């Protein structure tokens, strides 16, 4: 038998408890001025990140050979690519160091900015006009793209990239989507942001509530515990802390010890002439001592006139040259200039018939694990007199972890193109 006793209606939550209601957001810190200051900082910072990221991709010379190209379906996104130069020799060290250090330093600013605009993500109606709909779409893409780019970038730097998939295409295409949303949003909001920042304090207290009621400024704010300027100082201090514990990995010596949050911070590995930062060890790369011994190892050169095989002793009898060059990695760390000594790449090209204009070269390593076992260098890199097949560093034989018996060293090139444990070099069309 059914119970026909009327049941009380299900109580509805007051609208102030729903994120779509302005009353849900109670912080007294939110407002156009606070959001605008953060937005203008990100306008500059993200532009720098995007430009240096594009330069980092160009430094790999992806248009040269498939072995260098980690985003083969880039299409029009590669319109800007150019032959990466060898001058100045610290170019990649600077651009990639700025890219990674800026990215980490901007994390508190980004999080504060996202927190400041989160009420807009829940505002109803979804679109009041075509311009408002475009702003909402750009905001959603901006938030999603920012989180994706910063998270994948940090994972690559800190944890040797644990995110599913390949870092290069995900980060590359994600950057274009993010920056397109960023440009759209900036074009819509920058004029208002500049006006908000320029307002005098008295105007800000009165007008900003009228302009942003129901979006950023809480209609019934909680009592303030800190001023908006105090909150900005807190965000700035957090960014300064991240900068101070990251930037040192771009230097050797005592400054590297300040990079507490960087994977290649702390003291340089070991001591002596080979006591500077490395990325892949010989053990990680699967290099066996038996295959790099004087009796077993031979460098194979192939070019216009055929093939030449050289032992390390024979290479040491060729004219040797020196160059002071750093090693700089996509992860943002770098070393100071090290004193390398070896045979010029253009002299090796001449041994196999390329006497006048050195061509491109494909370099192959003995390594069995890790990316860039094979890498291509452009003709301008081969021709530079500082580009060496290095046999010694800082007056001593290369250590196994630094690429013994021979490694490539090229000015301004990413570290992965400075191939270690070189086995074969093929000069000519790639």
UniProtKB/TrEMBL annotation:
Q: Where are the transmembrane segments?
A: 33-60, 98-118, 139-159, 171-194
* Annotated CDD domains: SO_family_Moco (cd00321)
Q: Where is this region: Disordered?
A: 201-222
Comp. bias regions, Basic and acidic residues:
201-212
Query: Which ranges carry the Oxidoreductase molybdopterin-binding domain?
Result: 292-427
What the entry lists under InterPro entries is as follows: Di-haem_cyt_TM, OxRdtase_Mopterin-bd_dom, OxRdtase_Mopterin-bd_sf
Assigned keywords, A-Z: Membrane, Transmembrane, Transmembrane helix
Q: Which domain of life is it from?
A: Bacteria
Protein name per Swiss-Prot or TrEMBL: Molybdopterin-dependent oxidoreductase
Which organism was this protein described from? Streptomyces tauricus
